[in-house]
Amino acid sequence: MKLEKRNLYQLILAELHHSGFQTAATALSEATLIPLPSRGTKEDEENRLFRLMKVGLYIEKEREDKGLPPLPVEDLLATVPDYMQADLLKKDEKTGEDDRTKSSGLDFDAPNPPRRIFPNFTTKFITTHKNSCRVAKFSPDGKFVATGSSDTSIKVLDVEKMKTFNHTKSEHGEDFAPAKPVTRTFYDHTNAINDLDFHPVVPVLISSSKDCTIKFYDHSQNSVKRAFKHVQDTHNIRSINFHPSGEYILSGTEHPVIRLYDINNLTQPYTSSRPQDHHLGPINQVRYAPEGNIFVSCSKDGSIKLWDAVSHRVINTIQKAHNGAEPTSVQFSANQKYLLSGGKDATIRLWELTTGRQLQHIITGSHWKHRLQVAFTWNEDFILSSDENGYAGVVWDTRSGDLVQRLTGHTNVVLWTASSPVENSIITCSNDHRARFWVAEPVGQ
To answer: In this predicted structure, what is the pLDDT of residue 96?
Structure first.
């Protein structure tokens, strides 16, 4: 769903709600994942579509009275300020992304690899939970990042505000003031948070938990602290991921069968009918490819499986991908040529999808009690991981496998690393209850 369409449906939803058509409003809300207006919504906001229509009809009538034809759609662009026209023209027609945020990404076949700028990450902001900080996720536009904790809470943070924050003031103080980077805190789970994901278009955040539920939150509403929708499972939900269209959700649980939810029918998940395709143990992570045509899963059974997202059938299986140890995290490259994985054998591996060939093998330590969460940086020049023994995040060179930087500052094991999709900023989550937000400064080639 494009942003413009979402705004239109939001206006229609508010108008239906204002006019008393609650059944229709509820149906549209469930179909689009746009929450119903809150009780405190002003009448002017709910009645906006009607008022906009009256303005439009008045302008049309005025032109008609003057003997002028209706204004052609092509001429409407001329009424848009130049700076907005330039911004619109920079949008990618397929994804709606701004060209300025795009990167060529990783490609080992490129004859002339792009020049790399090696970063030096420094902490800009620290937020503290009441228990272990277990997971973090950036929004697709990079404007927000959410963190989830064993204390059952979820925080949503404003990235721009974190960049300008003086973190030394928050080492032992309150992270809501004075810049207030923490914009929302949600409390609706009854057990630890396992995974998070943002909807690609609408301001909806989903979370999965050991309490066997997926919760849906509207992170645009200031006063809302509870989910507006939830999915109940019978197993601990370990991993979730939105399809790039926002229409489907993958769910991996303690059960070896992966669930696929249509957001328009969350009560009946789809599962593969082919027993030979299923994992033999709990699912550690599920992730869609950028184009949404394939997805990947990894399991405690030691395997990584590549799936056709349309037929929901396995295309390829890498048995004992980490020498029999659990692969605990997986991520596609932007061009879908490569697959990144991390496992409890304390290694990072990079795979070529077409051949299944291993291109990179990075040894990060000697033993892993906790999961090894790995991720590409925004331009895929570097890989993020953690050091269980040194309580640090680690940055590696994707092509050479060399150590680039150790991210020190945590006082306990780093459990999660995540990267912004649009710039060189990252976040690390730790058993010390904290999430640290880092921004890179270029230091040379």
So the answer is: 45
